[in-house]
Amino acid sequence: xxxxxxxxxxxxxxxxxxxxxxxxxxxxxxxxxxxxxxxxxxxxxxxxxxxxxxxxxxxxxxxxxxxxxxxxxxxxxxxxxxxxxxxxxxxxxxxxxxxxxxxxxxxxxxxxxxxxxxxxxxxxxxxxxxxxxxxxxxxxxxxxxxxxxxxxxxx
Amino acid sequence: xxxxxxxxxxxxxxxxxxxxxxxxxxxxxxxxxxxxxxxxxxxxxxxxxxxxxxxxxxxxxxxxxxxxxxxxxxxxxxxxxxxxxxxxxxxxxxxxxxxxxxxxxxxxxxxxxxxxxxxxxxxxxxxxxxxxxxxxxxxxxxxxxxxxxxxxxxxxxxxxxxxxxxxxxxxxxxxxxxxxxxxxxxxxxxxxxxxxxxxxxxxxxxxxxxxxxxxxxxxxxxxxxxxxxxxxxxxxxxxxxxxxxxxxxxxxxxxxxxxxxxxxxxxxxxxxxxxxxxxxxxxxxxxxxxxxxxxxxxxxxxxxxxxxxxxxxxxxxxxxxxxxxxxxxxxxxxxxxxxxxxxxxxxxxxxxxxxxxxxxxxxxxxxxxxxxxxxxxxxxxxxxxxxxxxxxxxxxxxxxxxxxxxxxxxxxxxxxxxxxxxxxxxxxxxxxxxxxxxxxxxxxxxxxxxxxxxxxxxxxxxxxxxxxxxxxxxxxxxxxxxxxxxxxxxxxxxxxxxx
Lengths: 155, 499
Description:
The structure holds 2 protein chains of 2 kinds.
Chain A: H1 13-32, E1 39-40, E2 43-44, H2 48-70, H3 81-115, H4 123-144
Antiparallel strand pairs in A: 1-2
Helix pairs in contact in A: 1-2, 3-4
Chain B: H1 3-14, H2 17-35, H3 41-48, H4 57-82, H5 91-102, H6 106-140, H7 144-161, H8 166-180, E1 183-184, E2 191-192, H9 206-224, H10 243-265, H11 273-285, H12 298-313, H13 315-321, H14 327-338, H15 347-350, H16 352-373, H17 377-383, H18 388-407, H19 411-428, H20 434-456, H21 463-466, H22 468-485, H23 487-498
Antiparallel strand pairs in B: 1-2
Helix pairs in contact in B: 1-16, 2-4, 2-16, 3-4, 3-9, 3-18, 4-5, 4-6, 4-12, 4-14, 4-16, 5-6, 5-12, 6-10, 6-12, 6-13, 6-16, 7-8, 7-20, 7-22, 8-20, 9-18, 9-19, 10-11, 10-12, 11-12, 14-20, 18-19
């Protein structure tokens, strides 16, 4: 959990991270909208509101970073890298396999992949569960709800 | 049309076989996700949203509403039996509900929770029916400046009532508005913030953003925190509360309903705040406040009533003005828009069958919850034995299919992936993503009304203060901001939210 360490160290890492994120967001938004007309208050161009927002967000970001630097120390909580990567990977597998591989393959691969996001997985249980859920998914979404999806791979 | 006629129309819509079925389906799915910790009604609704496209609007809304209040109800079952809140709104129910269960009184606790929910649901339905027509009539008078001020007030109220740092919440609202502006600008036809990606030229799709932030982000966060569940062994018997139980619970139920109804209407109130406020009130009025937390029945009845009343009255701003008070209502707006209905004050007049049908279905749904779920409580309890390691792959899969189905394109799955990563980041640094979703949904409306108002006034921002309704709304927003900034009041607020 977010335990504060206290003592002489300074810097609230979560706040600084949030501030840095906001600054990055603002910079990206300002860069993307650089070519849009701003107009004036009576007749606003497409760039007026987004750019104004981006500057305000920039202000918030700077405020969080400066106040975070001066606050008492608080370290970033541990990122659970294994779960994070495996969950995102299983989403990517679904997106990559669905168009050509069909729903059945994509579903099974996603389930199998996500299983490894935890360390206490059990081979047999997961395999049976994934197979049953794949069958259920195909029946529910293609046969039941009529999603326009190919079930089997098209090579 | 008067109230009775309206309700009669509503019941005739809601009682059609098809709508009864979807109401039933909604409350069952809602209870299911409510019971299971780790799946929120928000991501369930987001997941199921694409599948309601093919339904008639009334059926779609009835089912989605059923999921919402079904989940509030299911969350308390888990709270009482396992001491884990199935939903955030059930946190308070854990305090006394679980203690009652440990004393062998799980049955009466569950029954009182159900009865309190039903009572609150009935009152809230009547409040919605009475208040909505005049409110919609008032909202019909709104023009661009009033709408802008109303939106500003709603967003600020949401920030004041949110958990955690209000300044972070404001920053998240602003970020949400910015993300909401992605897509082609309606006035000039120029693409904005699209980075040349054609898939987001029509705006960032709602479903992948919300499912990513809440669904995927939550799954990853849950995987990192081991969950221990000690389910009460043995069967739950004698559901009937005793006579002293009922006598103690009834006034608490009434008080809880009042608190919930009022807080639910406020923007930002929704379902999370009312139970906390109701529990605090119960402790204040009780003659033996020290006994709270040891399994007193008032401690279950009042927050449960407040919870359900709040969940239902939070539909009022949505249905009468088209303003969502919490992220789930924002999803409902999404559902209505996909159905081709612009949420706002005109819905009640142009779609009376839809409007009153949804209102009537709320009462029917609450009745179903009591009648169906109390006998099924054993089944819900056994569901809690499904370990999370089996549950989460299924959640991930349904998120994928939901995202894909929302646009029939795998681009949405990639978009969800990105927002999921961001959701985990927010979770880790302790920032609530909910205000962002409100900003995201309201952003386009906010900008449009702001630009229109400024155009009509010739660029003079005083227009927002010259119109009485708009000025009042902004004054309320200003008062809320002062409340937020003054440290003394802020401390009190934090205390109230923690209690």
